[in-house]
């Protein structure tokens, strides 16, 4: 009996401190719930995953200012014992505002900020003209 007690005590002193030492930095994804051309009410989502320890602060930003009254999912954990959480808020993807997600976690030296990446198509008519001209020149060289 004393041997079992000694092994249990030894296990607590040797292994338990290392459980708190396991850390993992958060991965951050920012996206809209529906396609930007949808007529449905849309939401900006910030999905943060793969972090440990579980203490974390996730803020959605509009033009650098914290959005109040966001919806926050329960803190959940994955098979590898890291955590994940979703934070979302209603938004209009067609206004000129800049949206981002700011994450503060003990594994980060400074808060991590990820911007929402929607941009209207950057292609212009002149881009198509140049591409078609290039294609025409290439095809002419092949057929000549």
Automatic annotation (TrEMBL):
Its main location: secreted. Belongs to the beta-2-microglobulin family. The keyword Secreted applies. It is found in: Secreted. One of its GO terms (cellular component) is extracellular region. It comes from the Eukaryota. Residues 1-21 form the signal peptide. This is Beta-2-microglobulin. One of its GO terms (biological process) is response to metal ion. It holds the Pfam family C1-set. It comes from Vombatus ursinus (Common wombat). The gene is B2M. Residues 26-115 form the Ig-like domain. Keywords: Immunity, Immunoglobulin domain, MHC I, Secreted, Signal. The keyword Acetylation does not apply.
């Amino acid at each position: 009996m004393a041997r079992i007690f000694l092994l249990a005590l030894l296990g607590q002193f040797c292994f338990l401190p290392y459980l708190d030492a396991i850390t993992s930095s958060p991965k951050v994804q920012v996206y809209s719930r529906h396609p930007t051309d949808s007529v449905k009410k849309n939401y900006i989502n910030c999905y943060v995953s793969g972090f440990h320890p579980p203490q974390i602060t996730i803020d959605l930003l509009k033009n650098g200012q914290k959005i109040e009254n966001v919806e926050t999912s329960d803190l959940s954990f994955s098979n590898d014992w890291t955590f994940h959480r979703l934070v979302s808020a209603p938004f209009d993807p067609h206004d000129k505002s800049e949206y981002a997600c700011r994450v503060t976690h003990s594994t980060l030296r400074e808060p991590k900020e990820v911007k929402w990446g929607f941009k209207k198509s950057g292609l212009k008519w002149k881009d198509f003209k140049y591409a078609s001209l290039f294609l025409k020149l290439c095809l002419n060289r092949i057929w000549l």
